[in-house]
From TrEMBL, chain B:
InterPro entries: Rieske-like_NirD, Rieske_2Fe-2S, Rieske_2Fe-2S_sf. The gene is nirD. Gene3D superfamilies: Rieske [2Fe-2S] iron-sulphur domain (2.102.10.10). The keyword Cell inner membrane does not apply. This is Nitrite reductase small subunit NirD. Residues 7-103 form the Rieske domain. Signal peptide: none annotated. Keywords: 2Fe-2S, Iron, Iron-sulfur, Metal-binding, Nitrate assimilation, Oxidoreductase. It comes from the Bacteria.
Amino acid sequence: MNAATGFDRGNLVRERLVVIGNGMAGCRAVEEILARDPDRFAVTIFGAEPRVNYNRIMLSPVLAGEKTFEDIVINGPDWYADNAITLFSGDPVAAIDIRARTVTSAAGRVEPYDKLLIATGSDPFIIPVPGKDLPGVVTFRDLDDVEKMLAAAESGGNAVVIGGGLLGLEAAHGLSLRGMKVTVIHLMPTLMERQLDEASGWLLRQELERRGQTILTGANTKAILEADGRVAGVELEDGTRIKADIVVMAVGIRPATGLAKAAGLAVERGILVNDHMVTSDPNVLAVGECVQHRGVCYGLVAPLWDMCRSLAGYLTDAPQGYEGSVISTKLKVSGIDLFSAGDISGGDGAEDIVMRDAARGVYKRVVVKDNRVVGAVLYGDTDDGNWYFDLLKKGEDISPIREALIFGQAFAAGGVQGDPNAAVAALPDDAELCGCNGVSKGQVVGCINAGAHSLDAVRSKCKASASCGSCTDLVEKLLAITLGAEVESGPKTLCKCTSFTHDAVRRNIVEKGLKAIPQVMQELHWTTPDGCSCCRPALNYYLLCAWPGEYVDDQQSRFVNERLHANIQKDGTYSVVPRMWGGLTNPRELRAIADVVEKYNAPMVKVTGGQRLDIFGIRKEDLPAVWADLNAAGMVSGHAYGKSLRTVKTCVGSEWCRFGTQDSTGLGVKIERMTWGSWMPHKFKIAVSGCPRNCAEATIKDFGVVCVDSGYELHIGGNGGMHLRATDLLTKVATEEEVLAICAAFIQLYREDAHYLERTASWVERKGVDWVRAQLLGDPEAIGRLARRFHYSQRFSQDDPWAARVAGERRDLHAHLAEVRPLQREHA
Amino acid sequence: MLTGKWLDIGPTTQIEPGTARTLPVAGGEEIAVFHTMRGEFYALVNKCPHKAGPLTQGIIHGDTVSCPLHNWRISLRTGEAQGDDKGCTPTIPLKVDGGRLFLLRDAVMAGVVA
């Protein structure tokens, strides 16, 4: 290459600019400088890769076969020659001497500088697991990596990509197109969690799975496995083993700061620079992914252009300063439209505007704060991405177009400013409002005028918005336009995140076969990205009830008591109630309880109203040990903490009592053995009394049995709580078998029909005793059908949760992260 | 562990997304370290401003935790109670570096009686 250092420029000698890094940042910076003042510097560039400058972000299309290397070269050899730039490629700089103002290359070349520009970029982060250095383990950073992947893909086989971020997914896509069977392992529960929320991440995952990739989220890599001296597979923390002929590590990047640090420059996560990209040494500048500016390190290309402009301005005496960048992301995977920009994490004062269109697989979410767009995620329809990004960067006040914002630029520009209803009012009568059911605006208005004065009435009359619900907003506006203040509010929705009622959500879960919380939220157009503490537990229960044995319980959607299998108390400690079947106990159990109380200094032990013992004041760290001791004496969880079967209270019955008519205790034990462990909409209490004196108070329980001479009276829907309610008599039967069958059927009916957090008392009042009776007794087959479904679901819920914790499951929920003991420091 | 401006409290993988864990400080306030579904980490004193409920045990949604005792919603970013509730839990500056979690030492020790 042309070497040209320090030659004359009139009377001046050119300043010597040495650039470390022949990548996108280094070369762009030089281009920007040359554009401003072509004669000012004599430029020397050192590059580690043995080739000219190319567009690194286009490596994904090269891998996917959509472009060749030649297509992505930015500056060929001519550019270096034309601009008298000396390029030392394949000879990386090994050291900087900021006092002598020289750099020394790996080959020993010493080059003096007046200004030094560090553009070393970043290094792929390698997770420190066994096998990370095996042949066949590659990163996705440069052309060599791509070539290794292409070589592997030639013989087909299995590829594992560790990392479900932007880079990892692009690598996976390329390898998949090249014919490999690809598995993506991602540590987080959501793909691309830095850019996507749970909802859009779930849509992306579905699409990738549809394309044949296997996506494992929440998966932690334990080791890379070896056979015959090269990579053979990947083992996860949970023991899963996945075959692999090639492993791509794409878990993230780290600013390459080694040279700068060794030279004594100020470095934190990246090389510290000011607004003119100057480091702690006035003659050394830095730009690109290796820098940290105002606390931020960037890993995308757009900020790099901004940095290069301000750097060039500064070096050519026209400083303008860099103020940081707002970034947007698009995934370069063909056929997947995905856009993310700004801050989508929500936060204080931020408001989400969400639109979902399940039929088209569209999810749009715009985050607004103080009437300004601060972030946006779009999936399936990214046409308005740039418009939102523009609004975001300009910080425009969106209050005039707020109502129309989510529908996009075309809609917002359509003159709806000021009146949110105007756009709907302006629609022609034959405009189709509800795509699912083919209902026009005119039909909806006609239906409203005919007396449908609420959303629900419209839904049941003409079916508009009754299916996917995406036009709910439009129907509500039509109601407002047509009726003004006379709109009747519909039944209560499940929570403020949705316009659907509990019943509609439950029906849709079953009819549409929805089997995961994010899927329900997408299909039913949730208006928040990941729900709230009201809807998450409800959805978790509804899914658990609808798909026994299939749905995987989401622990993060459970209240603390059900997560820790104990009852939290006001001081943050827990109370523990072991099960005592039918209220019976024995010396062994009582001894074990007494021992636990003493061993863990439980300040109180109390007899509960449900005929068992409650041990108070146990710390969460001690729970597994307490349970181990109780398990050892044969006791299991009493579920005193759950929306589940609590206790079966009994009296002593015919075995001892002179008035007893039947074996109420024995029957109570049988019922408890049948029903324990079942999850319900709310807590559920049962009692069996041996005679009409009703010592077990069966007529204020959810299900009560009162024994009489001729058999058993079965009572339902009682409650001894805030609103005292006596049971309704359901029926009378002659045998224990019938009691058990009707009990199971009644519970299952309640499980399948009631709203989450609705006790049987309010449920029976809402539905009517006659309805319940008809459901259970109207059809001779009904009891058998419901009972069978109950018993099937019980197959998956009658495991003692305490025993699982004792065995070490979810230790993280009980153990502290660490402990800080400041006093130790003073002794040290 | 106890040197420098930042306190290394271990790898990020110790806290599953959507959960939180406790970090007792001898002589000081117990700290709650949160990992949101979106992969962000936050640290707060483990006490709800309402009745001192342990926030680690709440349901985490977005960047908010709902206190397990009375369902107050607390912002993980600012510690402020949300909605109509008023109150604030102190936050502890946290940074993630190289897959490890660091807390600002001075903030961790803030409540420690010397």
